[in-house]
């Protein structure tokens, strides 16, 4: 697709804001990877719905080669920007089936999707779609929060804070191969972490990441997921607010962007079937710090896809 | 209550952020007016839920005397800050009955409520509550939009854009005594205004306000509402974005804050049973322009209550 | 093209940021109007190059019907977003011929272009292209500045401040049918206005607009251009900085957005062959006031095209 | 001094930030006008102390000719930037005598000072200095507030809110020739305006300005000051917050920058002995709207000095 | 008090902005800890006075359990928000005795106060009050600056920069048990650190913290304070400006929020008699980074109180 | 010059914004160091031209003693602020010879210049000037990018991205003694780093800095430059965007300000003949984080000059 593009031929900020100026199309046939927006939010993190638009907006800053693996992803991959799914923010009953169905159609084409939320609740309908194609998924969750709470406000079961519990309860991911990394911040109760462990998922706190360093964190993750197919869900609040102010539940003391990139670098070789980003909130951002970081992370997701493709061939 | 307060005794910015530093209480007995937050939003104007907090936050700037009527409202009225209603943003089915019921309890005490939204949809459950006490209400709506659309996204009937249609359909206000002022901006179709008129409500566009001036606009409103009991709903987007950038649907070419204050001044003597503000969106605000204007408008609502009380006695 | 689109079917903020979500294409065949970005700037108004991207970004806020003429432009016109021209900001010698040539190819298709600068210098290569198709053009310039200075910094002849002088010198527009409206602000010398008049173009200051009002301003403009083909160039600094802070040469005391819209409304019936916007500077903007206003103005340009088309048929 | 400067020779944003790039010197001998910073603030409008720095910072935007009178002030006047007086913000007892003394030394040289506050309290020590040279001064005060309150917080007598009362009590200005224009906003009590009138000074509210228009406002002012020597004190909060958000006591519904410039234009011919600006607060500003307006107003003060000088010669 | 509160019952952003939605009361009887605002500032860090209001404003983000000690502080402690002390910013002579007296009354009730400045000067009157109850206090000062300068501007002795010198001179703290941590940034002279050491207090620079790490820093602090009663004063500028931009004297190269939290974690078990925060400046903040960090730090102060209480029982 | 200045005599924020309030003069005779602005930018990093003005603007925050070496630079050095060179942003053909010539005149006086760009392209004309005085220069480049690309947009050879290639090609620096530190971020191709190495310059990536730490990084640099005369060019994008958001090509994962200061500290004793800063972009800055860091870095450049001077004597 963009194999011939010369990045120095014209200023990259020119043109319609697709992700990295890649072609916009609803027909993903032949694509290796599709970037997809899901502008949905349950109400308590207002502004999240603007993340897909804003990430695309700054993504022209990216060049085609990943410094983590020294791979030119435009050479290795056919990339498309699928645009946004049609969703109705606030109304999960109407929107989640639409997400699930639309994602299924994309997965059928053999594409690796990278969905941009939205709040973290949208990972649930995604996982329902993935589950139909991949019955045994290891989940890597980078997040400040466990998201394994049961019910909010007496009755809300499909929120950002309960998305991982729902996914495990419904057998969408294998908790024994899954891991949450970066947990920190004030908690509802001293049992917040245990409630994750009770569901079978491994928990690594930010303090533990800081103590053992990036290399050992990577080891821990790789050991956990083994050679399973992997879905990586990236909640931006895992990053320290200084590096990612654009999030609605800022928790000081987080991991740095250097550490995040180090972790992603360490995951090369795993078989990723999909990725998403969540809780990027442009309304809280400064100087586009968070959306630029988000664009770089999505770019490195693509590099991980390229690395697996290269090794497989 | 605050009869003895000397505004020059201590810096007004000191203290807990209640509206104008008035007492916070859930017991409104004996109050003339209660300021009430409704941090609810349907999803498409993210940030509206923060309006009550932010309006209170800047309201210390206000002094006790209205320059429009030269009345010291702290002398005339017992004012309380009721805090916020418990609502679940995004979920109208759970929240609207709560709003209706909580407002009823307040109305039972003979208080004049001033509710701070939230998006404009919250006017509907308020009007349901008012209707039980006042069966014949004239509605004054200051808004850039008619809010008389029927259905959004195939099925959503209780949105900001349909709130006035719902209220008229349900007989909550008398359209023949009701009036929309300030309509402008790009429209869904050339019939947008006629659809309001077909419901029986009078429409005054911003262009008409600009042409006839404030005095004639006031006359038109007063003629329309006659001596009925009046509910005034204030959608901040009626004001030009230069004066009120903090709104999610900015429509350039609006009326100025001076014109808004002129209109409010002209309404003295009407019997207001309630007020609300909607679509104040701190996430889009600059230099608190919009929340400061909002606080001043709420203050002038109180002055209108004081003026009616004085004249009645 | 978008004849069937139901604006209430899905949230308008969804999707790739083209102008009003209109189709992006380099093939303008069959289009009535094409929105075109020219991200070029001569250096002294840094940030102007981001205007096309940012205007598109907020343009989803627009609905399809103009309130000025009650015309649904999506019904009347085939609209496309052409994306950006390839230009090399700062280097006019390389860029201007490219602009001229690319615009010629578009004009050949009978499309009415609406170009989004960039700084005001880009009007010059545009006018060179128009001149080949329309040898007798009346220019309507809305601007705080005359842009009829000769040379900057000893040698620069193709700057924003000299663009109108160059166009007149080269016979690209007929000064006797042309008019500058909104001139104000501190000047290089008392002779700044006379230098425009000496070139044959009529000058209307902001003070004169304020004094005579919108209706007489419109009359003056219409009398000047007569029934010639018209090119309208809109320099955002004509608007008061409170309404349009996003400009690099803010001149307090300008006309309001209401007045701008009033003037545009008054121009219905003229035969516009093209439009452009200039000096919209997102780096100086607040709350997107300026880009939202810019999007509305571009939308009203389209309404003027629709009005002429309707009247002709 | 700058008689030979060619504004188009080099970009105006180059260089050290003095006011309009005028020479910085503590020796004002031979100067017609000196711009002087007084970064002093009594504590309740934090951020005012940065006004002198920020006004200078944006003043390069100005060109040398006033559009109000078509006079090139660089041709007519010798202008210097005196820098800031040494003051100790918060401590009036230490600072006011220093201001008074330093200003005396400047007045001795026959210079017309334009002082940039700081909060409005600093007008008091200025007037003490002026009084020694000009025993009979008419005061023109453009302000949203009367500043004729007596005491704050039980004992503070030299605040922004009492500065005009103090000046009149001490005989520093002749109240019978003095006038306050633009009064508005919520007040401490219904008697706030009467307390000014009781001191002998005339009060014109913003509502009155709006009603009678700029021309009659000018007439009223000129009639009041007659042919006395005039000191003009400009409190930025007289301007509507949309045009001047950078002020700590924003009062919606104010006069526009166009109206301010109209009033200043109307004052040509009066014998101004000095000017100051107050309550410009960069911490509350957006897009430099307020400091740019402030710089333009200071520039027009200079034009008024030039106009008087021309007429006298 | 809040023992029964279910944080998931209603959105935490609802309601009046007290600290963590805790009850607002001037009667601290029975409380374990009281959060108290002191909106006082000496003039050179304008904006500090808004810190208490803004910290409360974001404090709803906090949940009840500290991740550092896995303790639910709402279960362990009775917490109240005392509101603000009445102070007159800029005027220390009037304000300091008021602070001292008001704090004494609170200390008499056996409450542990957490005061939110304001500038750092307000620690002095606090220490005067503490001294009456606790004659032998170890001071832990986290700060980029030593604050042991003698006199500013020829005569000012009670400034932020001299507060620690004054406290030691007056015997309010025991320098031999006291320690300053985080010192860095450009200095008035090479002797700045020695002047602290000469007063008897230990100095640990940011460089030293970086070199030895958090664990050894904690050890150093604990060794210094021994088993004395401890007052901890937290100057926000100790944190790197990337993590805490909202401070008026930003010194690049500071400690991170992770390191700050690590240090606080290490202090569990000490007997804290009080805490304060200083130099949090909302006027310089971005995305509430600083006030959110401030709220988290205050929360962890409470956790330290809870830890001591638990261990004592 | 400033030997007698007492920093505590008056508030440092008073006065005209020269660098650290040092004297502004075009006559550098007798100065040890001159701070010089070069407000030039090639077009793709709009806003860079405002860096000199904004760095000066915040530089009053600095005190006279470097904490890295405990040296009072005002005691050791005669410092002047030269103001800005006259350049024509966007037009390198006109501007580069002017820069070269003006810098030569300064170098002739034996001054060590510290130039503030502007974009990185301006290092080229500087190096041409230095080369005439110092034929054998070691270059230390702190940068996220190699800047060794050949041509942009088909023909542009003198851009920010090619400045180091040009300098080496023209023999202006000795590549064998030169080193690039901090390289990272997405790249045009996997060969980006090798293209630098092929030119003979050593490359140290950010990852390598992170891995080996500051001490070893310093060693590597010192070994490379040996005892040659050194020019240090500082591209602000070498710093992580959290610490320096004000740059047009933000690359997440950068080195921290603490690490930058650590590296600078380690370079004491080298013979620096000049310094510059580039790519500081106030239009992208937050809370002045970047300009304050820039001012501190320039200050530490001066400290390095002082250290060499002391050791030489
Ligand atoms: Mn999370
Ligand atoms: Mn999450
Ligand atoms: Mn509306
Ligand atoms: Mn509405
Ligand atoms: Mn212009
Ligand atoms: Mn122009
Ligand atoms: Mn005022
Ligand atoms: Mn005043
Ligand atoms: Mn400090
Ligand atoms: Mn301190
Ligand atoms: Mn770089
Ligand atoms: Mn570079």
Automatic annotation (TrEMBL), chains A, B, C, D, E, F:
Mn(2+) binds at residues 120, 143, 145, 147, 235, 237. Keywords: Hydrolase, Manganese, Metal-binding. It holds the Pfam family Arginase. Binds 2 manganese ions per subunit. GO terms for molecular function: agmatinase activity; metal ion binding. It is an enzyme of class 3 (hydrolase). Its cofactor is Mn(2+). One of its GO terms (biological process) is putrescine biosynthetic process from arginine, via agmatine. Its EC number is 3.5.3.11. Belongs to the arginase family. Agmatinase subfamily. This is Agmatinase. It comes from Youxingia wuxianensis.
């Amino acid at each position: 697709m963009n194999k011939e593009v010369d990045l120095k031929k014209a200023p990259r900020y020119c043109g319609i804001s697709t992700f990295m100026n890649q072609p916009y199309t609803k027909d993903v046939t032949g694509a290796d990877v599709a970037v997809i927006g899901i502008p949905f939010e349950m109400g308590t993190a207002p502004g999240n719905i603007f993340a897909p638009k804003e990430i695309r907006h700054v993504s022209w800053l990216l060049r085609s080669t990943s410094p983590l693996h020294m791979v030119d992803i435009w050479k290795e991959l056919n990339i498309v920007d699928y645009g946004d799914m049609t969703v109705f923010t606030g109304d999960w009953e109407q929107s989640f089936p639409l997400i699930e169905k639309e994602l299924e159609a994309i997965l059928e084409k053999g594409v690796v999707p990278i969905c941009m939320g939205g709040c973290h609740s949208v990972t649930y309908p995604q996982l329902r779609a993935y589950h139909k194609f991949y019955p045994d998924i290891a989940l890597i969750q980078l997040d400040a929060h466990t998201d394994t709470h049961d019910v909010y406000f007496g009755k809300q079961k499909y929120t950002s804070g309960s998305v991982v519990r729902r996914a495990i309860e419904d057998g969408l991911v294998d908790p024994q191969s899954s891991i949450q990394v970066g947990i920190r911040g004030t908690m509802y109760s001293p049992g917040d972490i245990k409630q994750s462990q009770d569901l079978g998922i491994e928990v690594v706190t930010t303090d533990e990441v800081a103590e053992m360093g990036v290399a050992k964190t990577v080891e821990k993750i790789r050991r956990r997921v083994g050679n399973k197919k992997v879905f990586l869900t990236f909640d931006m609040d895992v990053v320290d607010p200084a590096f990612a102010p654009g999030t609605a539940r800022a928790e000081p003391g987080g991991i740095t962007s250097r550490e995040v990139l180090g972790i992603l670098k360490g995951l090369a070789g795993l078989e990723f079937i999909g990725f998403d980003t969540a809780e990027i909130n442009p309304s809280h951002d400064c100087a586009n710090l968070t959306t630029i970081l988000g664009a770089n992370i999505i770019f490195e997701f693509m590099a991980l896809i390229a690395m697996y493709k290269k090794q497989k061939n």
